[in-house]
Write a structure and sequence with these properties.
heterodimer; A: about 170 residues; mainly alpha; about 75% helix; B: 11 strands
Chain lengths: ~170, ~200
């Protein structure tokens, strides 16, 4: 049985999406174990570890996690996916972000770091999804930005044969 | 530079800046010299600025339970303050068959000892002191005891675990516990006591 070129390409795209999701998840796993610990160490070093007891400081941590963990993770996943896939990226870039997010939730759940009965929807669901999705789109479009400009240019240039001199 | 990349960098810088502003506002609002002032619905307290602190507030149809956890850095010791409002206090007393502060202290002590036995079946309990003492301007029953070999660290090393547990009861219940590995407990005892003395209740 022979596999058609179209289905082979679709299979390859799926593989790239999955790999993009894997990059997003791996980056998130690495950064999530680095950034909060780093901030705690920094605050401890400057003698203000107690600041983390206050709402303003927990909000600051959420913003920092969004900017330094979720957004870059999604960006890296999107960068890879956008590099490998050039078509339908408006829809496709959603998937690496969601794969990365689902992987993180599953890992945290099975390692006991996430209790679904007392889950903080904003910090544990909304912010990671937002960061991953926005990051993935920015990454994906970074890879395809030049290409879109080239396509637009090729559409507008018209060749007038009367102006060609031999 | 490609526009999405520029947007990505700008987003990171904006979020990092907003985070810094938020940290700084926490610093400006709560620093009192070498202490940080934690002002909550139930109590105000000043704690050393390098201690770890966490507060929580559980509210549901059966009442409100509020708590603060405080721990000094580099020491295996901590202090926990728990407050039950009137409704939560009624349920706590009924569920655990408790009628007075003394029986509440005994109940929590038994619960703690049973939990310790799960970690080390050979842990033993001995009392240092029992009695009453002032707590937030009211009388509280307290018990100071040691769980010999009750604290087991990650490497499996066992330590004596010293606790002071106190309960004050009116329409609400106030429970304070401070504990630590014996030598760390002794090092932080005066800090715990001064922290407790500076705590101001809002509910009574």
């Amino acid at each position: 049985m022979r596999m058609g070129l179209g289905s082979l390409r679709r299979y390859g795209d799926l593989l790239h999406i999955a790999f993009g999701g894997g990059i997003c998840f791996a980056a998130m796993y690495f950064l999530i174990s680095l950034v909060p610990a780093g901030i705690r160490m920094l605050l401890f070093y400057i003698g203000y570890a107690g600041l983390l007891a206050f709402t303003e400081a927990t909000n600051a941590m959420v913003l920092l996690m969004l900017g330094t963990v979720y957004l870059p993770s999604g960006f890296l996943g999107g960068l890879y996916t956008g590099y490998k896939i050039n078509e339908n990226i408006k829809i496709i870039l959603l998937f690496p972000a969601m794969i990365g997010f689902t992987g993180l939730i599953a890992l945290r759940f099975f390692t006991g770091y996430l209790n679904l009965s007392i889950i903080n929807f904003q910090n544990e669901i909304f912010i990671p999804i937002l960061g991953n999705v926005v990051g993935a789109y920015l990454g994906g479009y970074t890879m395809n930005w030049e290409m879109e400009e080239t396509v637009k240019l090729s559409e507008t240039i018209e060749l007038d044969s009367s102006q060609i001199r031999s | 530079m490609r526009l999405p990349l520029a947007l990505f960098i700008v987003a990171i810088l904006v979020l990092a800046g907003a985070s810094y502003v938020s940290f700084y506002s926490a610093f400006a609002a709560h620093v009192r010299g070498d202490y940080l002032r934690l002002e909550t619905k139930y109590l105000d307290l000043d704690f050393p600025r390098n201690w770890f602190a966490v507060s929580w507030d559980q509210q549901n149809s059966s009442g409100a339970r509020y708590g603060v956890f405080l721990a000094p850095p580099n020491l295996r010791a901590a202090m926990i303050i728990t407050i039950y409002d009137e409704n939560a206090a009624k349920i706590y007393l009924r569920q655990n068959n408790i009628s007075d502060p003394s029986s509440a202290t005994v109940f929590e002590l038994k619960r703690l000892y049973n939990w310790t036995l799960e970690k080390n079946a050979n842990a033993t309990l001995y009392f240092i002191e029992n009695g009453t003492m002032p707590l937030f301007g009211y009388s509280a029953d307290f018990s100071t005891f040691v769980l010999r070999d009750g604290y087991v660290d990650d490497r499996g090393t066992r330590y004596n675990w010293t606790w002071t547990f106190m309960t004050s009861m009116n329409t609400d219940i106030f429970q304070v516990a401070y504990h630590g590995v014996e030598e760390d407990y002794n090092l932080t005892l005066s800090s715990f006591k001064s922290l407790l003395n500076s705590t101001r209740l809002k509910t009574r």
